[in-house]
Amino acid sequence: MSARLAGADESTQKKILDMVAAAVPSFPLSNPPPAMGRIVYRLVREVTGSYDPFKEIKDKYNRMALDIYPELKERVAQTPDRLLTALRLAIAGNIIDFGVGKSFNLEKEIDEVFTRDFAIFDYEKFKQSLNSTDQILYLADNAGEVVFDRILIEELHKDVIYAVRDKPAINDALIEDANFCGIDKLAKVVSSGSDAPGTILSSCSNEFLNYYHQAKMIISKGQGNLEGLMDKDNAPIFFLLKIKCQIIANVVGCREGDIVLKHNHTQGSR
Question: Mean pLDDT over residues 204-227, rounded?
């Protein structure tokens, strides 16, 4: 998909596929999927000469989400538990993902997230952690989704460090996306230093790693970040996402389509 969006013809697409196939045998099976994604999207950039194939789509969803921002804010204001509503909206925004190869309806997702029960719901732990820290490291996922993150950040009432990808990977958010959506007015926006479609600590910058290791509370959005961090047993991470594939559902202990607020030390409920 990235190659097509970059304008590659069929022969160039085949060349990229052949190069990916050649790289697969040497790829350690113990590495999480975003590590392989890092290789794939780097090849797409190099072969096609297109730095950001998803740029147009990202801009579209950034604008679309900003258009409904006032409506989202009003939805939060009308509920007795503003924080919980903001968490649900942050999960609804997680559907803006072109890496899973499935279509989505954003308006429908926003409505459905308020009628769906959490499969894993570590809300009390989340509030306790929130009350015991002054600063949060927030790991972003996709462009467009950034606006939904903004809604949540505005309800946290804490200093936030908002970490995005260093270079394009699918439709993952970059610094320019965060700034366009107004995150820079609420938080310190930093790059993870990595171009993987997830948080792979071995590929992150020293600056990011300092924030990560010093953090008393981390909010991790989306599957890519979960795949890279779910084995970090000692990290104070809360995973916030919608489960989009059966493999992750099996790992987390729930079903595809479930919504999750999961503390790093919590086992799945099913």
Answer: 97
Residue 171's alpha-carbon distances to 121, 141, 224, in angstroms, are 27, 9, 12
Is the pLDDT reported for residue 11 higher than 50? yes
Contacts of 166 by beta carbon, 8 Å cutoff, 6+ apart? 174, 191, 192, 193, 194, 195, 205
> Taking the model in full, what pTM does it have?
0.88
82 and 153 housed in the same domain:
yes
DSSP label at residue 111 = H
Per the CB < 8 A criterion, the answer to whether 5 and 53 are in contact is: yes
- Which amino acid type is present at position 141? D
CA Rg, the chain, in Å? 18
- Residue 269, in any domain of the structure: no
The CATH number of the domain holding residue 164 is: 3.40.50.10880
Domain that holds residue 121: 55-263
Task: Assess whether 152 and 240 both reside in one domain.
Answer: yes
Q: Are 153 and 136 found together in one domain? A: yes
